[in-house]
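Moderator note: this is an archived Q&A kept for reference. The question asked for a predicted structure of one protein chain; the sequence and the answer are reproduced below.
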Amino acid sequence: MSISRRQSLKGLAAAAAIPQGALGARRTPGPAIRLVVLDVGGTIVEDRGSVPETLRSALGHHGVQSTPEEIGRLRGASKREMVRHFVERQSLPASVDRDKLVTSIYDEFTSELIAAYQSVPAIAGAENAIRQLRDSGYLVATTTGFDRAITMSIFRRLGWEQYFAAMVCSDDVAQGRPSPFMLFHAMEAARVNSVAEVVAAGDTPLDLQAGTNAGLRAVVGVLSGASTAENLRREPHTHIVPSVANLPALLASKL
């Protein structure tokens, strides 16, 4: 085989190694990564379908229609914003106070979900991965579409509060995913100044969209939660891995 032919094949192989949908070309080495931001449900805690089932039930109890497909498209968003989305598009009598209806539905959803998550385990290998990241010198934070009451009920049960430099919830920001505000809030809490020093991982298209909107160093999809590889690959990303358990090795590869 000619030298030019071998060089051409090597170039094709290198191009094929870049993850499909990656955020542009490979970057030159930048500043050291300091902060790893993890989604919660489906990323470090198992997703057993409790969120869509509980949300649809709470909506239905108050006469607000929804479908599993519609809820599925909003996975990763603020749960209060999801409730408001369905209430606002519902045809209701003029006498109905939509804000009060949102609050009633959301309160029911929260109570039921906290109860459901009392028996939901962590993703296999998640706690070990978090410990490895911390032992390697990274700050670790979480962002989630859950509010603080739901989030802390999960972390207290698992004994995880001490692991995180920041635990940012949907009620900490003006707008949830795909807006990047939770990620910026995590950076603020962790005292990290540059998006080039931050990696985020999540299991939904909205997780990847938020990371892209924030302009982070790396945006990693995980296949342990609500979305398929096909759905995640449609979104801009840098990497897709089976689960959060693969993150320490990925970061060790000097991405």
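Archived answer notes: The chain is about 45% helix and 10% strand.
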